[in-house]
Amino acid sequence: MSKIGIFVGSSGGVTQAAAEKLEELFDGAELINMEEDYDDLEQFEEFDVLLIGSSTWGQGDPQRDWVDPLYEMDNDEPDLSGKKVAFFGAGDQDTHGEHFVSALAKMEDIFKKCGASTGFGYWPTEGYMYKFSLSEKDGKFCGLPIDDINQEELTESRLTEWSKQVRQEMDI
Ligand SMILES: Cc1cc2nc3c(=O)[nH]c(=O)nc-3n(C[C@H](O)[C@H](O)[C@H](O)COP(=O)(O)O)c2cc1C
Question: Which CATH architecture has domain 4-170?
Answer without folding.
Answer: 3-Layer(aba) Sandwich (3.40)
